[in-house]
Amino acid sequence: MTKVLFVCLGNICRSPTADGIFNHIVVREKLDQKIIIDSAGTGDWHIGKAPDSRTVAAARTRGYDLSVLRARQVSARDFEEFDYVLAMDESNLSDLQRMKPTTYTGHLGLFLDFGSRGDYREVPDPYYGGHDGFELVLDLVEDAAQGLLNHIRNRAH
Ligand code: 4NP
Q: Residue 53's closest CA among 12, 22, 83?
């Protein structure tokens, strides 16, 4: 069993997108009994809320349903449960590094380190921008999600 947690700031745009897309791939590959997925935010503003309507709409046009997800805040206890804690940007990562127990033996890092594109290390926050930002999130997440699955598969052998 491998457990993966995606983390952004609000848990209503980027990390729910990663959660939904990675889940879609994992179900398609029939690995949903082996890989558990969740997402959370470093901030507390949107706890209990569904993802941003622009995020849900953009994802739906590519066949992903994010509407069932609800935002929650990340906590130090998540490090007891998750083998991979993957941050969307450097700011999320530094917040998580401060929260991480010294005993954590899993992988804390940037999600896009599993991607194949050289042009982005972080998933840019689309919240205050236009539609293109939401499409870019989908492009970056689809690429890195496939890379993450390949990585986990290779480790399992
Ligand atoms: P996310 O985007 O971190 O990708 O969920 C944001 C959502 C909300 C806010 C910031 C970023 N906010 O400031 O409320």
A: 12
Number of domains in the chain: 1
Atom of ligand 1 nearest to the CA of 51: 5
Radius of gyration of the chain (CA): 14
Domain extent at residue 111:
2-146
pTM (whole model) above 0.90: yes
Cα of 15 from ligand 1 centre, angstroms: 10
22 in any annotated domain? yes
Non-local (6+) Cβ contacts of 46 within 8 A are 10, 11, 12, 71
What's the pLDDT tens digit per position in 83-99? 999 999 999 999 999 99
Does residue 142 form part of some domain? yes
